[in-house]
Amino acid sequence: MKNLTLIFFIFSLLSYSQNNFTSARSIEISENNYEEQLRSSIVKNIELTNIGPSVMSGRVTDLEVNPNNPTEFYVAYASGGLWHTKNNGTTFSPIMDNSMTQNIGDFAIDWKSNSIYVGTGESNSSRSSYPGIGILKSNDNGSTWSNIGLRDSHHISRVLVNPNNENHLVVAVIGHLYTKNNQRGIFTSFDNGKTWEKSLFINDHTGAIDLVVDPENFDIQYAAFWERERKAWNFIGSGDNSGIYKSIDGGKNWELITTKSSGFPTGDGVGRIGLSIFNSSIIYAVLDNQFRRPADQKKTKLSRLDFKDMSKSDFLKLEDKELKAFISQNGFSKGK
Asked: Do 186 and 170 meet the contact criterion of CB atoms below 8 Å apart?
């Protein structure tokens, strides 16, 4: 009977184990097959009507406003694509309908060239946070898109473009949600995405969840790293490797600034960190603190030994319910 129970238990574990993730190469092959099917489809010229976002696709993940014309801006949704308006939001046009994914974590625009860089895959850690396929770029306002790398990142948190050098890109990758992977951390490119260098990597389950830049100096950057573990049945949203790093050379090199002596919380209770920079001297950090509060210490009951050295003033400070409990437990008469 014990052997039968053990076999049943092992079988149950195997039945509920998570499947392996789809490789980047398999996704790329699927994209090519999809494009070929689209070109040869007999219904390719039939127009489809978008009936609107659902709850899942309605989360806004980023918004970029034209600095020279505030009535023009772009809005990205978690799984609803990228939208564009030129009339201050009166009407919007979807510009990612012909891309291979609608899942977005963040995007950036070089307003000089009007190039759009989309980091695909929502960076939140919900069960409805769907993965992406890397960095997508468009030079024609979404008419066409090209994949410029980081295909195995799955979830991208932030995309930065150097306003003085479009070839200089910095990307924060949180990485796979349900599985460990090495394509996570901070990635830099100095040739507009042709090649990428991993400039900061902690481990295969800690990724970059936020990245901000000094408004006066692109070389000064701050990155928030988040150690987390998501399973279908559980989520651990904190760890020792969560912290804030600083770069002073445009993302090439990084230094941990949330050390134990910094005053910022450290340890296994440090959860997700959000960053906002005001100027070169002031940066704000919002922390999801996962440290457990210490349990309230149980009040010990009075014993006969407590009265041995108790002063009159301490005796008078005792609450009536403490004395009544002591009398009851020690068999004293309650009186009439």
From this structure: yes
CATH code for the domain in which residue 276 is found: 2.120.10.30
Taking the model in full, what pTM does it have?
0.78
List b or e across 158-182, with b for residues whose CB sees 16 or more CB atoms inside 10 angstroms.
bbbbbeeeeebbbbbbbbbbbeebe
Whole-angstrom distance, CA of residue 146 vs CA of residue 102: 14
**Closest to 254 in 3D by CA, of 222, 292, 286, 293:** 222
CA atoms within 13 A on the CB side of 204: 6
Pairwise CA distance, residues 105 & 50, whole Å? 21
Strands, E assignment, 39-154: 60-65, 73-77, 81-85, 93-94, 104-110, 115-120, 135-138, 146-147
Q: Phi-psi region for residue 267, left (φ > 0), alpha (ψ -120 to 50) or beta?
A: left
Same domain, 216 and 330: no
Instruction: Give 229-266 pLDDT, tens digit per residue.
Output: 999 899 999 999 999 999 999 999 999 999 999 999 99
Query: Do 77 and 212 sit in the same domain of this protein?
Result: yes
Residues 72 and 168 in one domain: yes
pLDDT in tens, 99-139: 999 999 999 999 999 999 999 999 999 988 999 999 999 99
Contact 236, 228 (CB under 8 A): yes
Single-letter code of the amino acid located at 301: K
